[in-house]
Sequence to fold (101 residues):
Amino acid sequence: MTYNEDDMVKPDLVEADQVEVAEITDITQIKDLVVYNDDINTFNHVIEMLIQVCKHTAQQAEQCTWIIHYKGKCAVKKDLFEVLRPMQKAICDAGIDARIL
Fold:
């Protein structure tokens, strides 16, 4: 059997402006809400805020608090910026250093 370029199946080309692309949530839009250690807030205060603001279970909040204590910080929540922003504000209003990264 011989190969002939004319026998190749060629895909139909479509102009780029004719194609509609569905909007997809980009993975880079997902951010971390990071809480930092300090020498001011008690374990109980941080645990209570994580339960209240981030809807952690008591066990999750306690584990995050120990990580914050020993590692200096912990990503306590992962979500879109728009979701994390009110949480960050509430945690900061309670006197705890939290940032969205």
Q: What stands out?
A: Helices lie at 43-54, 58-71, 81-93. The chain has one domain: 28-100. Residues 28-100 form a domain with the Ribosomal Protein L30; Chain: A, fold (CATH 3.30.1390.10).
